[in-house]
Design goal:
Mean pLDDT: 90
Low-confidence stretches: 370-384, 393-397
Strand order of the largest sheet: 1-3-2
Strand content: under 5%
Structural class: mainly alpha
Shape: elongated
Number of strands: 3
Number of helices: 17
Distance between the termini: 23 Å
């Protein structure tokens, strides 16, 4: 009886202080279009659109239907101090053509939820101030050294020194960048990033469990945050510039040029393996760097890549380091608060988010896949592969 009464109170409260942006966020996290959500709660698409736009507020009964259908607590829809969506820039996704709009919306919603949780925790724990310089580059042309200059600037400002970049995720976090893993259900979307007036965000792919490739991903996304705040995401030039930035950040030309192999004979493969472990980058990245710097010929590069393919190293290179870099900003905050008597349950209730998503956002490493639901067949197109990020047990299985 008490639980039912409490739920009723929360539903009435949510209807009174309803935020249409929170409904949009919940719908996108669930991987639903407006039409699919309307059908799920037996309402018209026009009604859903008016609720999301703020033109109308749903009744308490409609809020209860929305919460049940989406698998969230009614409190999820209550207005927050900050509208994260309106404060955020469009994310940089690797390939817009291979990723459906539904999947991109879901990924962006997850990133916004991470910012929301971060802001909630910051009420109790002091996080580093954002220290991310702006270095816009010409995104219409790819023939100047803007990305390389941006990488040299950040190495200097962040005191990288004359050697390999250290713990890259920790470095970003120390300068105010939020780094989290996405859920396994969203693994089809590669690493992505976006800026917001609250905190810049990098979201990493949970299944790319490779220390060396992950570091390049982090550097790539850092390049977007520095260079492409106002750039249209997904273009060939923009992505190439982020790759060039990452190469210079992790393998500075003036430090690595003299040690890269000039041919693939003799001890070249052994040397590459040593360079891989020293600089924390893949052999493939080193080979590409050698070719781009003019140290290795195109023919030698193609032959080396053919050898890598023949040996099955495209996805699984020989490596010494088996554990990925891990975020610590949010996990450490949760641990610190727990030691002060503020447990996870209290934090989840304060953040007003589903428990499993809270745990995923604040985890040091990717969590096992949560139960999920597949979008109904009538939600046609490639987006049919998008699944809900909410725990299906909440809406009755």
């Amino acid at each position: 009886m008490t639980t039912r009464s409490s739920t009723t109170d929360r539903t009435i409260e949510a209807a009174t202080f309803f935020d249409g942006g929170r409904l949009t966020l919940a719908r996108q996290l669930a991987g639903l279009r407006k039409t699919a959500l309307a059908a799920m709660v037996d309402k018209s698409p026009t009604a859903v659109a008016s609720w999301e736009s703020g033109a109308k507020r749903p009744s308490a009964a409609a809020v209860a239907q929305l919460a049940l259908g989406l698998g969230v607590d009614p409190s999820f829809f209550v207005i927050r101090p900050d509208d994260v969506a309106s404060l955020s820039c469009t994310p940089h996704f690797r390939s817009l053509r291979s990723t459906s709009q539904l999947a991109r919306d879901q990924a962006f919603a997850y990133g916004q939820l991470a910012v929301d949780i971060s802001s909630c925790l910051e009420r109790h724990v002091e996080f580093p101030e954002t220290d991310l310089p702006s270095f816009p580059v010409d995104v219409e042309h790819d023939d100047d050294d803007g990305p390389e200059r941006a990488a040299r600037l950040i190495r200097q400002q962040w005191n990288f020194g004359d050697g390999p970049a250290g713990h890259l995720i920790r470095t970003l976090e120390n300068h105010g960048v939020l780094v989290v893993f996405s859920p396994d259900q969203a693994a089809d979307v590669d690493a992505y990033s976006f800026d917001s007036r609250l905190r810049p965000v990098v979201v990493l792919n949970p299944i790319k469990r490779d220390y060396y490739r992950q570091r390049f991903d982090v550097a790539h996304e850092l390049g977007h945050l520095l260079m492409h705040t106002d750039a249209e995401p997904g273009g060939r030039i923009v992505e190439n510039q982020a790759n060039r930035f990452a190469s210079e950040l992790l393998m500075p030309a003036d430090l690595i040029r003299q040690v890269l192999p000039t041919s693939m004979g003799g001890s070249a493969w052994r040397d590459l393996r040593q360079l891989k472990e020293h600089w924390g980058v893949s052999i493939q990245a080193l080979l590409y760097r050698a070719r781009s710097l003019g140290v290795l010929s195109d023919v030698s590069y193609r032959n080396a890549m053919a050898t890598i393919s023949a040996r099955g190293w495209r996805r699984d290179e020989p490596a010494s380091i088996k554990v990925m870099e891990q975020p610590s900003l949010l996990p450490r905050a949760v641990e610190l608060l727990n030691s002060e008597g503020i447990g996870e349950k209290a934090l989840i209730e304060q953040c007003l988010v589903p428990a499993e998503l809270f745990r995923t956002v604040t985890a040091r490493s990717p969590l096992p896949t949560m139960p999920s639901i597949v979008i109904p067949p009538n939600d046609s197109g490639s987006a049919g592969k998008v699944v809900s990020l909410f725990d299906v047990s909440l809406n009755g299985g």
